[in-house]
Amino acid sequence: MALSALFHPLLVPFYLFYLVCYQLPGVVVLPPTPDRWLVLAVVGGFTFILPTLGSIVLLKFGVVDSLEMPLRQQRAWPLLLAAVSFGAAAWLLRRPGLFDPLLPQMMTGMTLAVGLTFLITLRWKISAHGVGMGGAVGLLAVLHLGQKAEPETVWWLAGTIVLAGAVGSARLALNAHTSGQVWAGLALGAGLVLGLSAGVALS
User: For the whole prediction, is pTM greater than 0.85?
Assistant: First the structure.
């Protein structure tokens, strides 16, 4: 239960932006380190606070009956609201000369991931936790293989792989998903990041 809450899909983006801004030297150039709180403020506000408030409003009006949203049918509106909010964050970070190009690229990828999760959820209950953790693994793999950071990225990558497995196991232990739904989420998150990165490299 604790792992599911601590690595909720709405929290994972904040962790990843904190990681690239403060824990992986050389990955991000702009903004300068003293001003990177602004990046975290945008990400935290638009990927966690606003979607959470939106879910609370939906709960108040009876659209969902629990913030955990165990039923697939109740996840559509919260995911759609999250996709819009993530998209707004991507737009705000797309400021050449102010924010490093990696930052809006990351946020755009996360927006696409949420959007695809929303579309799939209309028919099937894919694991959003899996999508988030798969995306985290994919991002760290790209950073490591692309040599955009110091060698310690391999340790972050290894730790994230272990953590993704632990979160997936937690979702199964809670009977929140089937193994297929968890694996599909992991594959979607990782595959989307790797695909977008390949597209950027070829452009």
Answer: yes
